[in-house]
Design brief:
This is cysteine desulfurase. This protein is of the alpha/beta class. The chain has 14 helices and 15 strands. Helix 2 (35-47) packs antiparallel against helix 10, helix 4 packs parallel to helix 5 and helix 12 packs across helix 14. It is globular. The two termini are 29 Å apart. The chain binds pyridoxal-5'-phosphate. Residues 91-93, 120, 122-123, 168, 172, 197, 199-200, 220, 359 line the site of pyridoxal-5'-phosphate (PLP).
Length: 401
């Protein structure tokens, strides 16, 4: 059954890619951009770029106004209690590194940090390196066969020594919502700080950070149909108060002398240097666009397409899914076929999917795999895209077997 996307025409790159015979199914890596974002970027650059928070002139005032309006839009999108809880970074990775440096003073040698076995390198390596720097223990929470963080095991492993829990909301490889409510409750019962990597989760549906109850939540704009080079670190005010400044320079300083300085609190104190002004304004425009869509219709469309994807994969002999993906993506391997060979043949047929370890090497290794193919969906994909993918897959498998 044809499953059209009512939003496809809002994303000019999709038609452009189609003219180049490309079917884009790598949305978990990054997304195409809506016209509303392109218009906002063109408007900003065509009407006068300016730095924010420092110039008294009109372009500076307008840029600052638009920049701070975006902060409010992000706060609204996440239902943060205040825009001052939103720090702009350069991406989820830089937000997580900011946390791993900024929180270092909160830990003592022997303290434990818990992550899960499915984390993207961005939510593993900053904590691993912090543990190595500060003599902490990194505890890795194992997974169930369905690819969920194992709550039974977590109950054994999270305890009074746990000072921080950092977990993904939605795995970029396994595509399942993690049992965050129970995990966060467990960590909080022991007084640990909680960090949620929302890089994949934020794209699907609306999420309420207050209801989630995490201390910190991070995401990258480019995966949410926004510009690249921009990320968000949300923090509860009390948790933000625990962060030490970690990058120093313009704008974050209150008073500076040759031998000492004092710094602004969050958010400005954590936005040293010139921020990605156009990108932040563009993220605001993207959120305006997304907020104008019927959220229930978007979710229903994504689920219908995901169902088609799963059925198609199940129907093909030798295809093995990783975990039990519930939405947005599916990773798979094919018996007797190397994922790099398959990816090569898919690429040759204009199918843009991702192959390899998906920046989660320990997870793939734990599954006994060197790599897998991942198909990930965006709101502009339709069933014709999947049909082209399956035709290309069948052709490739015929050649490889
Ligand atoms: C779950 C997850 N966390 C973090 C990241 C890092 O995002 P970025 O590279 O935009 O910083 C990604 C990117 O793929 C991801 O999928």
């Amino acid at each position: 059954m044809f499953q059209p996307s009512p939003w496809r025409a809002d994303f000019p790159a999709i038609a452009a890619l189609q003219r180049q015979h490309q079917t884009y199914l790598d949305n978990a890596a990054t997304t195409q951009k809506p016209q509303a974002l392109l218009d906002a970027l063109a408007h900003y650059y065509q009407h006068g770029a300016a730095n924010v928070h420092r110039a008294q002139h009109l372009p500076g005032a307008l840029a600052t106004q638009a920049f701070e309006a975006s902060r409010e839009k992000v706060a609204q999108w996440l239902n943060a209690a205040s825009p001052s809880q939103v720090i702009f970074t350069h991406g989820a990775t830089s937000a997580l590194n900011l946390l791993a440096y900024g929180l270092q003073g909160q830990f003592q040698a022997g303290d434990e940090i818990a992550v899960s076995a499915l984390e993207h390198h961005a939510n593993l390596l900053p904590w691993q390196q912090l543990a190595l720097r500060a003599g902490l223990k990194l505890v890795v929470l194992p997974l169930t066969a369905a690819g969920l963080i194992d709550l039974e095991a977590a109950r054994q492993l999270i305890g009074p020594r746990t000072r921080l829990l950092a977990v993904s909301q939605l795995s970029n490889v396994l595509g399942a919502w993690q049992p965050l409510e129970a995990l966060l409750a467990l960590a909080k019962a022991h007084g640990a700080l909680t960090v949620v990597d929302g890089a994949q989760g934020v794209v699907h549906g609306r999420h309420d950070v207050q209801r989630l109850g995490c201390d910190f939540y991070v995401f990258s704009s480019h995966k949410l149909y926004g510009p690249d080079g921009v990320g968000v670190l949300y923090g509860r005010s009390e948790a933000l108060g625990k962060l030490a400044h970690w990058q120093f320079g313009g704008e974050m300083v209150h008073v500076a002398d040759y031998h000492s300085a004092s710094f602004h609190p969050a958010p400005l104190g954590f936005e040293a240097g010139t921020p990605p002004v156009a990108g932040v304004i563009g993220l605001g425009a993207t959120l305006d666009y997304l907020a104008s869509l019927d959220q229930a219709a978007v979710i229903a469309h994504e689920q219908a397409l995901h169902g088609l994807l799963l059925r198609g994969l199940h129907d093909r002999e030798g295809v093995r899914l990783l975990g039990e993906p519930k939405l947005a993506l599916a990773s798979f391997v094919v018996e007797g076929v190397h994922n790099a060979d398959l990816a090569h043949l898919l690429t040759e047929q204009g199918i843009a999917v991702r192959a390899g370890h998906h920046c989660a090497m320990p997870l793939l290794k734990g599954l006994g795999l060197a790599g897998a193919i991942r198909v990930s969906l965006g709101l502009y994909n339709d069933s014709d895209d999947l049909q082209r993918f399956f035709e290309a897959l069948d052709k490739a498998l015929e050649m490889l077997r």
